[in-house]
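Summary for the steering committee. The consortium agreed at its last meeting that each partner would contribute one worked example illustrating the joint modelling workflow. Our contribution is presented below. We chose a case with several input lines so that the handling of multiple components could be demonstrated. No manual editing was applied between input and output; the record is shown as generated.
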Amino acid sequence: MSPLHQIQIILVEPSHSGNVGSAARAMKTMGLTNLRLVSERTDLLDEQAVALAAGATSVLESAERFSSFEQAIADCQLVIGTSARLRHLQNSLLEPRQCGETAVQHASQGKVALVFGRERVGLTNAELLKCQYHLHIPTNADYGSLNLAMAVQIVCYEVRMAWLALQEMPQNSPLADYPNQEALTHFFNHTERLYTALGFIRNDAVMPKLRRLYQRAKLETNELNLLRGMLTAVEKQLEKPRH
Amino acid sequence: MSPLHQIQIILVEPSHSGNVGSAARAMKTMGLTNLRLVSERTDLLDEQAVALAAGATSVLESAERFSSFEQAIADCQLVIGTSARLRHLQNSLLEPRQCGETAVQHASQGKVALVFGRERVGLTNAELLKCQYHLHIPTNADYGSLNLAMAVQIVCYEVRMAWLALQEMPQNSPLADYPNQEALTHFFNHTERLYTALGFIRNDAVMPKLRRLYQRAKLETNELNLLRGMLTAVEKQLEKPRH
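What follows is the complete predicted structure of the assembly.
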């Protein structure tokens, strides 16, 4: 199953049916089809919604209804909640690009919920606490009032971009495994030790440059093992007696 | 002047005033304020436009009117045109992310036009030929009918992301200098020679991994020089006589 079909767009108590229709159209243009509505209202899929959905009425027709936030996210392995006021949630904050990447990565393992709150007041604190990650769209500080369907459009766009990037990766290659911080520290210490012994590192300027380079590259585990193997190869040669 | 103020969003003959209002709101949430309308119609800034602009009516109020596409782009140094049917324009195609980066880069030198065509038929071929670059939003092949204001939202979002990335770069540091392909080839050959001599490289599997890593990292010239210095340091040590 395509990862895109694992992703659920959840709108919590939207006020305007037009936003529901526009969100459906935004989703379908990016290849997403699963819409969930948390609402007791029966008029959210009215004529206005259908008109604004344009060619995406199929998304409205297949939309699932839930009477609570908990029920809407119950079968999802990953829940990402969106809100404008998230500054206190530093540790779990994602920008839209990371959100798209995270959603697509997790979609191979299970359902992913991308949750959008009420137009005026967003998600409640209780709802935000039930999300593993929190999405912050970095809007203009002077005017950050993004329309609900526009927020859905940006997030669905980033999901699609992450999905397209995944398609372009070589087929059948397992997802990369990344080293933890301890393994990276060992690698940097190993490098510093060896090149100090070689007389190449004589001041504090070299290691920060190497750290910056390899952190930017987001070293994969097999690459880290390769680089450590190269360090060890140099060490072994240095220890050999010369002819 | 902030690069964002150099960027002009140009709507060519929009049909629906609501899209003009929504586009204004989309722009302002991302910090863009310059809207240009190519249209003879006098009803494009009607009540519907004002209602959908929400807190961005200032963008509508300062919108500039032009009676032709040529006049609207006359003072712009860079013109990027958007359209859904661009497959034949391979050489000048940009995706939204590259479009944001290109627009922000050029905005330090002059005005940049991001042009959006008519809702149903987009830009004419004659108009597209007057654009240096062409923006293609990679929508769902089964349903790519992105609303005009949604397209504006995605592009303005990518402009903002590129601008924010620029803000995060260290102040006063010159833009990084990147090595050419020849310098990279020298580095890879140097690495292969040394580690083959060390007995570490014994097959064809190692170099493609290293190439992939360093190409992904987009090595800067000073980093390449550092890595080559490390190779030379190892070589020198190997040549030294042992005690």
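The two ends of chain A are 61 Å apart (CA to CA). Strands of chain A lie at 7-12, 34-38, 64-66, 76-82, 93-94, 111-116, 133-135.
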